[in-house]
Design a protein that fits this description.
The chain is mainly alpha-helical. 78% of the residues lie in helices and 0% in strands.
């Protein structure tokens, strides 16, 4: 079976989620994937190269592609904000995304390369959210604050996905959306 770089990146990401960054090693991945380490070196210079590509893959899939998709679809700012308030509740995909996000953020707490990528992702997401609030007529400082609150809400709901009943979660969604969109 011919493995691609993406196969290795996916396997490394799964190991990161379920164990930790320390477990993401070439020998461990090769054993899990039932191949030799030589297969790894066909695609990557070393472990650091793989880890960098894991981060870039996450950045692309969870930020760049999503923003590009919303821009291409021409989603109106208010609709987008309401959709983003609901995003943490989108079933398995949301849980998977939250798991990856949490694992990468844990890694970034003790690794400078990961920290730089997480900081860049956070900055890009916040600027995009700020632009959305700006399109709704909010002045820059207010748009920036609302973007930060929305971003923190999304991260928090992802982390605390077991907190509250379905009704509680829907009430929080409505409250956050209405609060953030009020005052235009």
């Amino acid at each position: 079976m011919q493995l691609t770089p993406n196969d290795w990146i996916r396997a490394a990401t799964e190991l990161l989620i379920h164990r930790s960054i320390d477990a993401v090693r070439v020998d461990v991945l090769a054993k899990i994937m039932e191949v030799t380490r030589g297969s790894f070196y066909w695609h990557f210079k070393d472990r650091e190269d793989l880890l960098n590509r894991v981060l870039l893959s996450w950045q692309d899939a969870q930020t760049e592609q999503i923003i590009a998709r919303y821009r291409k679809q021409g989603v109106q700012a208010e609709d987008l904000i309401r959709e983003l308030v609901e995003l943490p509740f989108h079933g398995r995909a949301a849980l998977k995304g939250a798991s990856v996000e949490l694992a990468i953020r844990a890694w970034a707490r003790r690794d400078e390369m990961a920290r730089r990528v997480v900081d860049a992702v956070d900055a890009k997401r916040l600027v995009y959210l700020q632009e959305c609030f700006g399109e709704l007529g909010f002045a820059e400082p207010d748009a920036k604050s609302r973007a930060f609150v929305l971003y923190c809400y999304m991260q928090s709901e992802s982390l605390f996905h077991n907190q509250g009943s379905t009704d509680d979660k829907q009430r929080r969604q409505r409250f956050v959306a209405e609060t953030l969109l009020a005052g235009r």
